[in-house]
Design brief:
Layout: H1 17-38, H2 43-60, E1 75-78, H3 84-94, H4 134-148, E2 154-159, H5 166-177, E3 183-189, E4 192-193, E5 196-197, H6 198-201, H7 207-213, E6 217-222, H8 226-238, E7 244-249, H9 280-287, H10 293-317, E8 337-339, H11 340-351, E9 357-361, H12 365-368, E10 384-386, H13 391-403, E11 407-413, H14 414-420, H15 422-430, E12 437-441, H16 459-464, E13 470-472, H17 477-487, E14 494-497, E15 502-504, E16 519-523, E17 534-538, E18 549-553, H18 557-572, E19 576-580, E20 583-585, H19 589-599, E21 601-609, H20 614-623, E22 632-638, H21 648-654, H22 659-678
Parallel strand pairs: 1-2, 2-3, 3-7, 6-7, 9-10, 9-11, 11-12, 12-14, 13-14, 18-19, 18-21, 21-22
Antiparallel strand pairs: 4-5, 8-15, 13-20, 16-17, 16-19
């Protein structure tokens, strides 16, 4: 049944197949406009699923945009959450909001996040983005309908690469066992994923035969033929006794010439922007949806105006001091910005010369730079293994290699490789004391517009509590390089956490580095070069200078702590001991205790749920308190919330993780210290 009025059961609009084709073109157009305005997104998969999306939301599923929570609605779960713009286009076309609003895609606070967030927009059934989870959710919802005697149907949108995940097949078995004939899964079989062709990344074999073996009703269609799509949904509705899967043969990037069948357009905006061969202009011409230049300009202006509002809010939120201390804003104190992942890639390329090393990629090899293992050395390809989207299996397979004396490096988004695979890491890698090396990539909120599902904010806690695990959280690209090289040959399991976006490079070959030993940085006065304004020491070699406060930081928060030290010294005469705790486990407990005893005030800083790192430091301070002084302590970090979509630095400001916020917290802590000492 199409969109209805849930109050009286009347049909709002019953589209013909021809009208649905026109609507799909409109949705493709707004999809490309939004992705272009955002400067990022996933055109490939959103374009391939759009015909099915138009049919499902405008003709097949029963729902009421005026009453999104109507209990009788059909449920549609997007397991392939990265296709969110297609979902937003469908909701806009259905009337949940003006479709033009989706041009605010991936902008801070807009609700149109990089992956669906059900708390931010009406019509979204479940917040998703971690692949492989949607089919299980759909099975649970369908089972509820069966047990409760409710008539709603359940739909689940999946990608073909997503079928790599073992959780998909657990859910498939469950759905068949309970004979959930009110459940219809759709596989967008566009045959491409991030690392390449699906069959090359991880061969799926014949999906139709596999689902039949799991006792599903299987329907195979051309995913761009509207009559076939509608017929398939009708057959699924009429089928009884088992769940149905519609395997839709599609073209990734369908409708846009330069994106069709191109791996590179999985997750990037049009390379030429608004005009040119690979541009929004070309895309709209290909799609054939007529939109006047004036209307297009107005829509894009909406995105621009919204971002200006965000910029104003962000600017207002930054604490103000005597002058602007932001990165590279003044005449001097310049610093290079380099993504920390580059340091990991460079180190891994060198480590790969050792025949004992092997590497595993999980479908984002280029993004996290694990592909540097073989990129310039094709002879190493035989030691690089792709596991597709299957982090748990990746850990197990790598542990099998480690048990045979190899040194395996594995990597993915930190939230997936440490979160989804935590039990495998715990039981197989740590319990067996294996030499597994984990690239915990894209850590923190600074990963940006992908949003909460892709922002790892818990893994310092998850990894640090594991027996035998070593945890490195380097502060910049060069230190990431050094840490990776060091960890390769330290026995036992280890994880290295690094960011995606460009961050200040504050260390060099002159900076001391010893795994398990903290560094101390002291601000010595303004300089043409920001790094040259600081003097570095190995913590164990440092002689105290009667500093007022210690800021203990890890990862990209170290440069922010350094900049905070500049603010505190220049504006308030406060001397800061900056402790770079690049090794969180084993922790340099002596450096912590000395900071407490010698400064009496400790502030921790982490791009992580507050306390993940801070509580480790607090534990070291409290349990080792054998000194006759009182001290005060506070923490800077993410305050018990999930991340969200936005520009990386906007998020850092909004979550109060920048130097200005650290400086404000430090001043407050200094007031507490003064009162404590006075009492």
């Amino acid at each position: 049944m199409p969109i209805i009025n849930s109050e009286n059961g009347s049909i709002v609009k019953n589209y013909t197949a021809e009208e649905l084709v026109e609507k799909a073109a409109m949705m493709r157009a707004y999809n490309m406009i939004a992705i272009t305005a955002a400067g990022s997104g996933h055109p490939g998969g959103t374009l391939s699923i759009m015909d099915i999306t138009a049919a499902l939301y405008l003709k097949v599923a029963s729902h009421d945009p005026r009453h999104p929570g109507w209990d009788g609605r059909d449920r549609i779960f997007w397991s392939a959450g990265h296709k969110a713009p297609a979902l937003y286009a469908a909701l806009g076309a259905s009337g949940y909001f003006p479709i033009k609003e989706m041009v605010k895609l991936r902008k801070l606070g807009s609700g149109f996040e990089g992956h669906p967030n059900r708390l931010k927009l009406p019509g979204i059934e479940m917040s998703t983005g971690s692949l492989g989870q949607g089919l299980g959710i759909a099975a649970g919802s369908a089972l509820n309908a069966k047990q409760s005697g409710k008539g709603y149907r359940v739909y689940c949108i999946m990608g073909d690469g997503e079928q790599n995940e073992g959780s998909i097949w657990e859910a498939a078995m469950c759905a068949a066992h309970y004979k959930l004939d009110n459940l219809t899964a759709v596989i967008d079989m566009n045959k491409l994923q991030i690392d390449g062709a699906t069959d090359e990344v991880m061969c799926l074999g014949c999906l139709a035969e596999k689902y039949r073996a799991f006792r599903w009703n299987v329907i195979e269609i051309d995913g761009h033929d509207m009559p076939q799509i509608l017929d398939a949904f009708e057959k699924a509705r009429l089928h009884k006794g088992s769940p149905t899967v519609i395997i839709a043969d599609t073209v990734k990037g369908k409708g846009v010439s330069y994106a069709e069948g191109v791996v590179g357009y999985h997750g990037v905006a049009p390379k030429d922007g608004l005009k040119g061969p690979e541009s929004l202009e070309t895309a709209l011409e290909n799609i054939g949806y007529e939109i006047s230049s004036g209307e297009l300009e107005e829509i894009l202006q909406t995105a621009s105006d919204y971002q200006k509002t965000v910029d104003e809010k962000i600017t207002e939120k930054i604490p103000k001091f005597s002058r602007d201390y932001w990165w590279n804003s003044g005449e001097g104190m310049k610093v290079d910005m380099v993504p920390t992942r580059m340091g990991f890639g460079k180190a891994l390329e060198e480590i790969g010369a050792d025949e004992k090393t092997v590497a595993y990629g999980a479908d984002i090899s280029g993004s996290i730079k694990i592909d540097q293992f073989y990129k310039n050395h094709p002879e190493r390809k035989e030691r690089f293994f792709s596991v597709g989207i299957a982090e748990q299996n990746m850990i197990q397979a790598a542990c099998g290699m480690a048990a045979e004396g190899r040194i395996p490096f594995v990597g993915s988004y930190g939230v997936f490789v440490t979160g989804r695979a935590w039990d495998q890491i715990r039981t197989t890698a740590c319990y067996n004391e294996l030499d597994l090396k984990i690239a915990d990539a894209h850590g923190g909120i600074s990963v940006g517009a992908d949003g909460a599902t892709h922002q790892a904010l818990e893994e310092i806690s998850l990894m640090s509590c594991l027996p035998g695990m070593k945890v490195a959280v380097p502060c910049d690209s060069f230190q990431t390089y050094r840490a990776t090289k060091e960890l390769a040959y330290i026995p036992g399991p280890a994880v290295i956490r690094y960011a995606r976006e460009a961050t200040p490079v504050v260390t060099s070959e002159k900076t001391p580095y010893e795994f398990g030993k903290a560094n101390i940085a002291r601000y010595r006065g303004g300089s043409e070069s920001f790094p040259e304004a600081f003097e570095w020491f190995l913590a164990s070699d440092y002689e105290p200078e009667k500093e007022d406060i210690s800021i203990i930081a890890c990862g990209p928060m170290v440069p922010e702590a350094m900049r905070a030290a500049v603010i505190l010294k220049e504006d308030f005469g406060i001397e800061v001991r900056i402790i770079d705790m690049h090794t969180v486990k084993p922790l340099d407990r002596d450096a912590v205790r000395r900071a407490v005893a010698e400064t009496g005030a400790v502030l921790t800083a982490e791009e992580h749920q507050v306390g993940g790192f801070g509580n480790i430091v607090a534990g070291a301070a409290a349990t080792g308190k054998d000194f006759p002084v009182s001290f005060v302590m506070d923490m800077v970090g993410v305050q018990d919330r999930f991340g969200e979509s936005g520009e990386p630095w906007d998020l850092m400001v909004d979550f109060e993780l920048v130097a200005e916020s650290i400086a404000e917290k430090a001043r407050s802590l200094m007031e507490r210290k003064k009162k404590s000492f006075e009492s």
